[in-house]
Every structure is written in C-alpha cells, then in structure tokens.
Amino acid sequence: MTGSEKPIPETFTPALGQHWLTPVYDLAIATLTRERVWRAFLVRQVQAVPGDRILDVGCGTGTLATLIASRTPQVAMFGIDPDPHVLERARRKVASAGASVDFAEDFLSEEVLARVAPLDKVVSSLVLHQVPLSEKARILQLMRRALRAGGEAHVADYGEQASSLMRWLFRRTVQRLDGMQNTQPNADGVLPKLMHEAGFRVVEETGRFATPTGSISVYRCIA
To answer: 48: buried, middle or exposed (CB in 10 Å: 19+, 13-18, 0-12)?
Structure first.
C-alpha cells in the first residue's frame, strides 16, 4: 500500500446491522424499502449489454447481480462482499435463477481491481450508508478507477432525507440498526459531493423513492 492509499477496513457492518438478522434480510428489504420499485429502476438504468464487464460492490445476498445476469446472460458479472454468510445466500440465489455470477469474499481493493478491471459498469446498492465517511470516499474512488473511460457507476442508497417525514423514518429504522455516525452523512446529502471528488465527470441523481425506512436515491456517474 502506498502512502496515498487509504487502508482497507478490517470489519464491516453486516446486513441489517446484526449478523443474527441476516436470515431475514431479503424479506425485510422487500417489505420495508419498496425494493421492487427502486431495484427495477436501477436495473433498467444499468442497461447491461452483451459483453459488459460489471462489478457489484457489496453484493450482499446477490439480488442485484442475479437480476442483471439473468436479464443479460452474456455479461461478465462479478460480485464482492466481505460477509461469507450473505455470499452463501447469493450463490444459492444465482444458482436457482440459472444465472452466472463470479462471487468473491472480499473488500473492494487494488487487488480486486487487478482481477476484474477494466470494467464497463460498477453497481452498488444499500452499502455506502453503512460505512464510515472515509470508506465511502475510498469505495467511490476505487469504483471510478475500475472503470474504463466513459464507464458508468450506478448506485442506489439512502441519500439526502429531504423531508421531515423521511428524516423521522430514517432515524427510527436505518439509524437504529446501523447507527448514527456512518449513516448521517448520507442523510445530509454527502454522496454526490463524494462522487464528484472521486473523479466522476458526470454525477446525477436520477430517482428518489420514498420508503417506510426513509428515501432511497439512485445515482448515475460517468467516468
């Protein structure tokens, strides 16, 4: 690691904030976040085409990676996550769908980029709100560096909680599970700023979805 590189974290926040909640993660996300709506919007936005190389950062139980690989089987789809328990579920999910995804237990790092880059697209969903501010920046910088010129990053996560109702719901749900320190920058609207600082030449919020857990924003960034 050079002096300019940020350290890779040694720990991570598990799905729903606690390991014991992992078995109900998919059900909770489906019922409490209007997942079908924003997830379908995100997959359409990605517009995967045959030959694309796509990495899902913090792939979790593999829902997004499976949807993309099932919709466009000719893509080279990769997924990384440091949690072996969610990856077990991801592998079962993709096998059940008859799709192909190369999953790896890992944090996003230079070593991972050496294996999969250059990429056409990078995706991530419901990850950045769980990590410290420095790690949000590190992940976005590596996502940018992984992409070929003109490549795209597509992110769905809790963004700015612009209304009093969304802020209240976010405090009562997400922040109770994942804590205040890591999640508050998202609620304050930090993600577009970090995306610009990571070197993306275009950053746009393409959708914002009110949910019982706060608002989820979808972003599109061009390298």
So the answer is: buried
HEC secondary structure over 139-182: HHHHHHHHEEEEEEEEEEEECCCCCHHHHHHHHHCHHHHHCHHH
How many angstroms separate the most distant Cα atoms in the chain? 44
- Of 212, 211, 207, 157, the closest CA to residue 187 belongs to 157
For residue 30, which phi and psi values (nearest 5 degrees)? -65, -40
Identity of residue 90: A
- List, edge to edge, every strand of the sheet that includes 214-222: 102-105, 76-81, 53-57, 119-125, 147-158, 214-222, 202-211
pLDDT digit string, tens, across residues 118-146: 999 999 999 999 999 999 999 999 999 99
- CA separation for the pair 123, 62 (Å, rounded): 12
3 state DSSP class of 13: coil
pLDDT in tens, 168-211: 999 999 999 999 999 999 999 999 999 999 999 999 999 999 99
**Which residue type occupies 105?**
E
Tell me the whole-structure pTM to 2 decimals. Answer: 0.91
Superfamily assignment of 15-222 in CATH? Vaccinia Virus protein VP39 (3.40.50.150)
81-101: burial string, b at 16+ Cβ within 10 Å, e else? bbbeebbebbeebbeeeebbb
Give, to the nearest 10 degrees, the angle between helix 180-187 and helix 133-146.
60
